[in-house]
Amino acid sequence: MQQLEQTLKAALGAAIQQVFGQEVPASQLTLQPTRKDFAGQFTLVTFPFTKTLGKGPEQIGQAIGEWLVANTPQVSGYNVVKGFLNLEVADAEWVNVFGQLRQTPAGTPVPTGGPQNVVVEYSSPNTNKPLHLGHLRNNFLGYSVAEILKATGATVTKANLVNDRGIHICKSMLAYLQYGQGETPQSAGIKGDHLAGKYYVLFEKHYREQVRQLEAEGVLPDVAKRQAPMMLEAQDMLRQWEAGDEAVVSLWRQMNGWVYEGFDATYKSIGVDFDKYYYESGTYLLGKERVEEGLQKGVFFKKEDGSVWVDLKEEGLDEKLLLRADGTSVYITQDLGTAELKYQDFHYDLSVYVIADEQNYHMQVLKAVLKKLGKPYADAIYHLSYGMVDLPSGKMKSREGTVVDADELVREVVDAAKAATLEKGKTEGLTEQEADQLYHMLGLGALKYYLLKVDPKKRMLFNPEESVSLEGHTGPFIQYSHARISAIRRKAAELGIAEDADLTSITELHTTERELVQELARYAAVVAEAARTQSPAVVAQYAYDVAKAYNRVYTEVEIFREADAAKKAFRVALSAQTAQAIKASMGLLGIQVPERM
RNA sequence: GGUUGCAUAGCUCAAUUGGAUAGAGCAUCUGACUACGAAUCAGAAGGUUUAAGGUUCGACUCCUUAUGCGACCA
């Protein structure tokens, strides 16, 4: 397709040169797909040329169209509507495009000239709670963006920065010491991350009770919040941790260990993975060194109380705290350390942070601070800022208990897929284990597609019923289309019809076939676009368009009942390429596709 | 208070980055299985793109202002 477009653009340039005697830079010759209601496949907008060529838009279109039909074999016809010149490309040429497509099927790397060495950091959980719906959007986005960048030929490292230290985990630890009675994930029969979450909730409950009591005794609300005994104890515990207190550190190790087991199970279940783990407990000290470096270089300053700040007013930001007066670190301190470590490890030319848009300011600060420090890698940092997920009832709030748990949600979508498959699936012959894998594949396909089809930058609404839907613009619709094609290919194999059909005798196509070929030919452009904008939504839309186009072919033309053997073989080949495009693009989303369902 | 993002069919989302009559899905209504898989396909209906100005051959897209919702910084 790119070749065809190049040819057409060159021809357009030549046409203008010949007819009007003027040079038009190739960059101004942009072709766009012709709208469905008009004949043709490529459209040139002629309005922009009226000034330089001194003619009306229709006249220009007519003249160029006429010249092209006469002089360019690929152009079989044209029509002009106002300032739009629609070019019709002969079916034989589209068959040609299909032939080229088979040489580099969907899934072969698409070089774009973009970054070659990339780190994508995503997931990045806190260790005091299990993962929830918001993390799922993050995980699916991060995994998918990494795969998309890989598809452009880049070397990509998936990194997970675990927030394993700080006051939050101390809260869970404290509540566990007070109420846990030696409970373990094994003894309680719950996943480790959920166990830690249970004690975090317990902490909050008892802490709030203490605050309420203090307030009842006449203490002012902010003071009560700061001076409630449990809060003081948690802070004390954090200091002990920083001091390396053995009992505290060993409890910390134990509870985090449980949490990691739980996370691993969830990651495995949702099909995401990491090449490298970072732990904030291992980077915050390095961050403190960077702060010291900034002080020495004179780009940071110390206030009277001993706290360290950076002035970012010139960058349009504000003054920002980098180290507390007592010398303990804040979020940004450890982020400075992690950024440094990542660069030492990978020397990336692009470092993506998949983080919700509530941290836009924080990420601007991080980048600005690294620039102040003169770090060469500052410019390579890119914040993939995604919108938060809302529920029909509004925002997710842990205090109101409206947080959607990831493990539970996965269970629900898999159950829904199972119920639907038992009702209308074609799964006879599958072992029980294969069937379970299928339900998992379909349930997760529904969930992932639902979360990925929306532009990452935009806030989105999570509707539980729609997320398990299998019809319309959904993952299972696309998975179904693949399973359907698989059935075709099985039958073709039985009949001994090869998938590498000879195309020489194919000179005309059904409209739906031509449209499908056009879709298939877009794959490389779609991958490039998705990589450029770091948007899996682009790929999601493409997979849907391909499936939709195939389903139209499927109802409009016959495959095995076709009398013409060459056409029959062509349609089998077309089916095989479609399956490949669906599998490859869904793969970029982290969604698997079944052979039957 | 300061900074910033968003607003498109009843609902959830698109719109090739300034191009034609703004497109899909869900929901509603109507058709298509004795067939290669109906988790499908075809069709109907649904819009003053929050409002008012501006820029130009052309604006959902860019610029003002207003309204509403959100986030962040104290």
Characterise this structure.
The structure is a single chain. The protein is an alpha/beta fold and 597 residues long. Among the domains are: 2-89, Arginyl tRNA synthetase N-terminal domain (Gyrase A, domain 2); 406-588, Isoleucyl-tRNA Synthetase, Domain 1 (Orthogonal Bundle), CATH 1.10.730. The chain has 22 helices and 14 strands. A hairpin with an 8-residue loop joins strand 1 (31-33) and strand 2. Helix 12 (284-297) crosses helix 13 (331-346). The longest helix is centred in the middle third of the chain and has 25 residues, at 192-216. The chain is globular, with a radius of gyration of 29 Å. The protein binds one RNA strand of 74 nucleotides through helix 14, helix 15, strand 14, helix 18 and helix 21.
Q: Topology, pairings included?
A:
Layout: H1 2-20, E1 31-33, E2 42-45, H2 50-53, H3 57-71, E3 75-81, E4 84-89, H4 91-103, E5 117-121, H5 133-151, E6 155-162, H6 167-179, H7 185-188, H8 192-216, H9 221-227, H10 229-242, H11 246-270, E7 276-279, H12 284-297, E8 300-302, E9 308-311, E10 319-323, H13 331-346, E11 350-356, H14 360-372, E12 381-386, E13 389-390, H15 406-424, H16 432-452, E14 460-461, H17 464-467, H18 475-495, H19 511-521, H20 523-533, H21 536-556, H22 565-588
Parallel strand pairs: 5-6, 5-11, 6-7, 11-12, 13-14
Antiparallel strand pairs: 1-2, 2-4, 3-4, 8-9, 9-10
The structure holds one RNA strand of 74 nucleotides.
- Give me the count of strands: 14
Structural class based on helices, strands and sheet pairing? alpha/beta
Low-confidence stretches: none
Looking at CATH, which topology of the domain at 406-588 would you report?
Isoleucyl-tRNA Synthetase, Domain 1
Give the terminus-to-terminus CA distance.
33 Å
Strand order of the largest sheet: 7-6-5-11-12
This entry's quaternary arrangement is single chain
Gyration radius, rounded: 29 Å
User: How many H/I helices?
Assistant: 22
Mean pLDDT: 94
Enzyme class: ligase
Protein name: Arginine--tRNA ligase
Motif ('HIGH' region): 125-135
Subcellular location: Cytoplasm
